[in-house]
Design a protein that fits this description.
It contains 17 helices and 5 strands. Strand 4, helix 3 and strand 5 form a beta-alpha-beta unit. It starts with a strand and ends with a helix. The mean pLDDT is 90.
């Protein structure tokens, strides 16, 4: 039977949890004011009221956990604030209340989540970067848990991105977000910034810039359903892995269909950002007449963002070289938009 450390608010709370979990784990209960001297076990459950608890000591204690240890925080369903706070303290995964011993076991068996490995990034004071990282946390957590994505939260994050790009410029954005240690987060942040910078260059309205920012944050939501060892692989994908990765647009559609309030053009950009004008893209092999201007813009931003990423196994491609690759894609991309994009590459 696996040893489970449980952090509860009080002895009375611990008593209720004991009845729920005792048949499934070897339980060791602690409260915030009485954390053990020993490091956390392989499995730790934190079931406290995050709205009322001061958790600095808990954060320091969790830093001592074994390398592959799992730390699950129980949170209120669809509470963005609690999700962000839990990850800041040290959660490797979240579990919505109410839960059962079986759902807790399944959560531990999932392993460390994408959100957990993306923690610890320094936003260097850029409000839009901070808002984007928080939004990505919520997007990927919702996708993993089968929850809904809040369009108001996405819109606010997109607005913060537009404001930061307007004030600080795209070059500063790229410089900061290329330091992110998660390949997935780095890519989403790059695409978001590049899309807003491109929309700004094209003279788009603020509303359209916000739409592209939101699409950048959401465009790879389906990757939450891709195994982490493929998603964050430190090297090129093999053929089988590539086939699986190509499912992410449709996996993203599944996630967004359960989230009311998202605009149709937003879903269009998420599902079709890998479509090409000549019909050679995926998942639906659309051709030019079926591909909207916003999708064309986010596709160019997505390709360029992937080319200039910094990865452990390869340096980023120079902007001028990345732009040449866009040019050489010929009829796959909108030639007029690619021509305008030259200014972004030069910047």
């Amino acid at each position: 039977m696996d040893r489970l450390c449980v952090i509860a608010d009080s002895e009375s709370c611990a008593h209720g949890l004991r009845a729920k979990l005792a048949m499934h784990f070897e339980l060791h209960f602690f409260t915030l004011d009485c954390l053990p001297d020993a490091a956390p076990a392989e499995y730790t459950l934190v079931d406290i009221d995050l709205r009322k608890s001061a958790c600095s000591e808990l954060r320091n204690w969790l830093k001592r956990r074994p390398r592959d240890a799992r730390v699950i925080f129980c949170v209120r369903r669809d509470s963005h604030a609690e999700a962000v706070q839990a990850h800041a303290i040290g959660a490797t995964g979240l579990l919505a209340r109410p839960y059962t011993a079986e759902t807790l076991r399944a959560k531990f068996d999932e392993g460390i989540s994408l959100v957990a490995i993306a923690e610890g990034f320094e936003t260097e004071g850029l409000a839009g970067v901070g808002a984007s990282v928080a939004a990505l946390h919520e997007i990927f957590e919702a996708a993993l848990a089968g929850g809904t994505i809040d369009p108001v939260m996405i819109g606010k994050a997109g607005d913060a991105v537009v404001g930061t790009i307007d004030e600080q410029g795209l070059a500063r954005w790229v410089d900061v977000v290329r330091k992110h240690h998660s390949q997935t987060y780095q890519h989403c942040l790059l695409v978001t910034g590049v899309a807003v910078g491109f929309a700004r260059l094209l003279g788009f309205s603020r509303a359209d810039k916000q739409r592209l920012a939101s699409a950048g944050l959401l465009h790879d939501v389906g990757k939450a359903k891709i195994p982490l060892d493929i998603l964050e692989k430190q090297g090129p994908l093999d053929r089988a892995e590539t086939v699986l990765m190509r499912e992410h647009p449709l996996l993203g559609l599944e996630v967004l269909q359960s989230s009311p309030g998202l605009q149709p053009e937003m879903i269009d950009m998420v599902v079709h950002h890998h479509e090409y004008l000549d019909g050679s893209g995926y998942p639906h092999a659309l051709q030019a007449q079926s591909i909207s201007d916003l999708v064309r813009a986010i596709t160019i931003s997505d390709i360029y963002g992937a080319l200039i990423e910094r990865r452990s196994y390869k340096p980023p491609i120079a902007p001028s070289e990345a732009y040449e690759i866009l040019l050489n894609m010929g009829g796959k991309l909108d030639k007029d938009l690619v021509r305008e994009f030259r200014t972004i590459a030069r910047a």
